[in-house]
Amino acid sequence: MDARRSFSTLAAVAVTLGVAACAAIPPEPTATSIPPEGDGPVVAFYGDSYTLGTGATSAAARWSTIISADRGWREVNPSVNGLGFINNRTVFGEGDLPSIIIAAEPELVIVTMGLNDNFAYERRPDERDRIREQIGIDLQRLRDGLPEARIVVVEPFWYTDERPDSVEVIIGWVREGAEAIDADFVAGASRWIEGRPELMAADGLHPNDDGYAVMAERMDAELVALGL
Which range of residues forms the domain containing residue 144? Predict the structure, then answer.
């Protein structure tokens, strides 16, 4: 892929444990499953509201689009508010995000999932094994469906300074899943905007434009370190 050109400059959930879906902030971000026209490489993003861009003033301000525009990538971003490997997920198999991403035939896939599964972990202890299993299933499907693609799995984002024990547990499961499919793993992403309330949108759950800009800068540096 083309070398980086320098640029200038949580999936979030409801407040109560009874509802684990991300709150949307106008304008509603746009999910895309068809690569835009062009000559650049197709890059797909598998994530939740932090990758969809909820809280940004426009899709152009989300970290995935900042990076894609800067690098000349054709972005496929079907990310969903509140989505987890099992949390807020109604479709498994044909028609779910992994299958949509595989159909786009990207050269690179960036996975940023797991934040919302913390709420399933805390609320439904009997499903903890299922979270771990589904992480492996999703990542293996991506590898099997895209054997020539490079896959980068990012440590799940987090949205508050308080970190329940589940955060580190799920980070470990995601790392394990990445290693199992020989994917690159980006560590530390759960702390990229930690302790910086000025980077959060009015809902207190999602990044604002400045927050997404910081995430883009940090992600860009990690991708460069991976040779991307």
Answer: 42-225
Q: What is the pTM of this model?
A: 0.87
Burial of 99 (0-12, 13-18, 19+ CB in 10 A): middle
Total domain count, the chain: 1
Among 173, 225, 221, 190, CA closest to 66: 221
- In whole angstroms, give the CA distance from residue 24 to residue 82: 10
Report the CATH number at residue 211.
3.40.50.1110
Lay out the sheet containing 184-186: strands in order across: 74-76, 42-47, 108-112, 150-154, 184-186
Give dist(CA 222, CA 228) in Å, integer: 9
pLDDT at 7: 30
Residue 195 inside a domain? The answer is yes
